[in-house]
Design goal:
TIM Barrel; elongated; alpha/beta; Lyase, Ornithine Decarboxylase, Chain A, domain 1; 3 domains; eight-stranded parallel beta sheet; six-stranded mixed beta sheet
Length: 409
């Protein structure tokens, strides 16, 4: 079967053989489902999208400028299409992704708001930008080819010029950017929609970066070049910028109910609400006799008569490997500690001997139940990695349910 360039991009980003085995129909592994008894899964993710609406409202109240929502990397593990469609319907100003394939999936799913591909572009894919109305972050001479492609389609491709003010990663170096901006502005097939930079999140150096960025913008404007929306501040920058947030902000982790660092998390200035919950069900309940072992290499040995439960979730689902001995899960609103080992598809917990927990009981691994809560911050402490990595490592193939609660409104 011969795939078009667009189809290949989508299929390769999904990374699933289903695409190639069913003609040209694209199987998207993010099922949008409503909570209900008819939906039964071993392990799944629940999304309280009204909580995301609440977080977005609090961000807007704080910055009072347009918001470009960062939904790269499968919307930080939450689900690219679920989040993208929800934000589009919520009237978001723009969405930012870091792969062209992500932008194409969003357009395929009906998302119509402005989308910026902040990641790289290969020139052979330039036609797709014009065809689907996707903006591109640019900083190389390939922009001339973009202009030619746009003129072939009888339109202009919108771009955001990205400046490297010290991050040392993507972007035209700031000391070369003045001439580059003039070149881009002269191209008939290009419309400059914005100009951006990425901060290192070092407080003192960020000031240096902003001086470089704003000086460059001012020089261009003095030459009569319209550089469009200026944007530089991500979730971390939103708390250090003030009083000016430029023309637009690019929040990521804040949208999902978490803060960029421990200090801002403790301050909780925006009263954020987590969006994602990770749940499973009890697969088996067993009684251990003294000396009985659990998991590979007898990772755990019972010293007394104990009761344990097996939960069908493991590191292949993105659950942290190092959580045993530190972590717990919630069942019926009570904490139960992890024992044994985290394997690809299973983990074990110790139950109270007199507990009435049975097979099929709902288990919360990330989220709230009763008066208790497990946050991504807990999991990050157990694993010794950032909250970002906890969320981003969740398996994209896990089913997702959309909750209908009004808790975020």
């Amino acid at each position: 079967m011969q795939l078009s360039r667009r189809e290949f991009l989508i299929a390769s980003s999904l990374g699933i053989p289903t695409y190639f085995s069913k003609g040209k129909s694209v199987h998207v592994p993010f099922s949008v489902q409503k909570q209900g008894k008819e939906q039964i899964h071993e392990t799944w993710i629940e999304l309280d999208l009204p909580n995301m609406a609440w977080n977005l409202k609090k961000i807007k109240q704080h910055v009072r400028v347009p918001v470009m929502a960062v939904i790269k990397a499968n919307a930080y593990g939450h689900g690219l299409l679920e989040v993208g469609r929800f934000l589009d319907k919520s009237g978001i100003d723009a969405l930012m992704v870091c792969k062209l394939s992500e932008a194409l999936q969003l357009r395929e799913s009906g998302v119509r708001c402005p989308i910026l591909n902040f990641g790289p572009l290969f020139v052979e894919d330039a036609d797709l930008l014009a065809k689907h109305g996707i903006s591109q972050s640019i900083f190389t001479d390939d922009v001339q080819i973009l202009s030619q492609k746009a003129l072939k389609w009888g339109q202009k491709i919108t771009v955001h010029i990205h400046i490297d003010t010290g991050m040392g990663r993507m972007g035209i170096p700031y000391h070369k950017a003045e001439a580059y901006i003039e070149k881009v502005a002269s191209l008939d097939g290009i419309r400059i929609k914005g100009i951006s930079t990425t901060l290192t999140e070092d407080p003192e150096f960020d000031k240096v970066q902003m001086e470089r960025f704003l000086s460059l913008c001012q020089k261009s404007e003095q030459k009569g070049i319209r550089t469009g929306l200026k944007h530089a501040y991500s979730s971390a920058g939103i708390f250090t910028a003030g009083p000016s947030f430029l023309d637009m902000v690019r929040p990521g982790i804040l949208l999902y109910g978490y803060y960029p660092n421990q200090t801002t998390q403790q301050e909780d200035l925006l009263s954020l609400k987590p969006v994602l919950q990770l749940k499973s069900r009890v697969a088996a309940v067993k009684i251990l006799r003294p000396g009985d072992s659990v998991s590979y290499h007898q990772a755990y040995k019972a010293k007394t008569r104990e009761k344990m439960a097996v939960i069908p979730i493991g590191y292949s689902d993105g659950y942290p490997l190092q959580a045993v001995g530190k972590g717990w899960v919630l069942i019926k609103g009570q904490k139960y500690p992890l024992i044994g080992d985290i394997t690809a598809n299973h983990l074990e917990i110790r139950l109270d001997l007199d507990s009435l927990i049975s097979v099929g009981e709902e288990v919360v691994l990330l989220g709230s139940q009763g008066q208790k809560e497990i946050t991504a911050n807990h999991l990050s402490e157990w694993e010794g990695i950032s909250t970002y990595k906890i969320l981003l490592r969740l398996n994209p193939l896990l089913p997702r349910r959309i909750l209908e609660s009004n808790s975020g409104l």
